[in-house]
Amino acid sequence: MGQLDGRIACVTGGTRGIGRATAEAFLREGAKVVVTGRSSEKGQRALDEIDAGDNVHFISGDVKRREDCEALIQGTVDKYGRIDILFANAGGVNNSSFAPVAEMSDEGMEDTLTWNFWHTFWTMRAALNHMIPQQHGRIIATSSVEGKVGKPGNSSYVVAKHAINGLVKAAAHEVGTLGITVNSVCPGLIETDIVKENGPDYAESMGMTYEELLDWFGKESAIQRINEVEDVAEVCVLLASDVAAGITGSLLSIDGGTSPY
Question: Which fold has domain 8-190+228-254?
Answer without folding.
Answer: Rossmann fold (3.40.50)
